[in-house]
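Recap from last week: sequence in, structure out.
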Amino acid sequence: MKRINVVGSSGSGKSTFSRQLAEALACPYLEMDAMFWKANWQGTSDEEFYTKLEKALNQETWVLDGNYNRTRTIKWAKVDTVIWIDYSLLRTVYQAIKRALYRSITKQELWENTGNVETVRKSFFSKDSMILWTLTNYQKIRSRYLNVFADPQYQHINFIRISSPKMAKAYLKNIAESKP
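Predicted structure tokens:
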């Protein structure tokens, strides 16, 4: 396991898991959202995003956090493992709400030098709400990964499905204990 992509619905805990996995493996943690988002919630063009992603993945080892389905051919060209954080809808929405409240209260900048912060209004009362996005896209994302995991085109990739926080904790503990 040298090049890992952690995927899952928004709010599933991809970032937390990815950071912990990268630390356990002593390899770079790469966050797709940090590559995509600019100041004032402006996204990058696909051309710029793909260039940033290709440059970031031009390393021997990494843990990449994020879906961005349109980037699959780039990020999975070198990937050897894909870990799917597949918690229940209830658990995922709970985590998304908890995260949104925490970030709204603390005004934590999400990605360095962007000034982007979550607000109660954006999180709970906006059509751009990540909570709403999670609710409306959860099943679509699950279906996508169920299909991808079964697709012979990707048989060279080691797919791991983690379906509970307990399973995630055990997986990370196993990685940490198996290090020389």
